[in-house]
Write a structure and sequence with these properties.
By secondary structure, this protein is of the alpha+beta class. The chain has helices at residues 4-15, 105-118, 130-135, 149-152; strands at residues 20-34, 40-45, 52-61, 78-85, 88-96, 140-143, 158-164, 172-187, 190-195. A hairpin with a 2-residue loop joins strand 4 and strand 5 (88-96). The two termini are 30 Å apart. It holds the Pfam family DJR-like_dom.
Amino acid sequence: MPSLEMQNKLLNIFESNKLIQMPFISRQFESYNIPNGNREFTWKLGTKYDKIKYIVLSFQTARDNNYLNASKFDNCGLEEIYVELNSERYPYECLKFDFDKFNAVQQCNFAKEFRNSYYESVKDYIFMEEDVYYYYYPLLVFDVSKQNDRIIQSRPDVTIKASFNKNIAQSTKCYCLILSENVVEVKDNRVKVVSI
């Protein structure tokens, strides 16, 4: 609860009908049950906001019960993955890796850069050890903040395309967190969310 002095200041601002803008990052979370027995999958999903900044993906197999650690993610033998925003590919060259042979340094670095950028932290901050990333938290981070004008002027459709080195196991889910930049505008006691 704000102090009485702060409450009065806020009340005066609202009563003056000035435009108040507050930037924030919105989060949209989606999950998808991947059909088992395939080595590839495509997932198309709509978005709620216009200016997408990051897309974070992860996979889990058979973690819907109380017996397995739900905070651990699986690499599921992932070989290649990329994201499309209205048919524009991110990254331009497909990410290729082999988690079993510790061959995903680029993606691990993307996750570190995301952490530093999102939390505006010092670059030397230790994100996590690489072996912990490979075994427990293989999060796939896509920085899609640099978009062309065609994408920026519309609400983008997101398509995720991935291929695996083995058939996808039963009860495998893909999780997607979409982070978008927005502004809340308050004027005349009306609230409106505006994309940046």
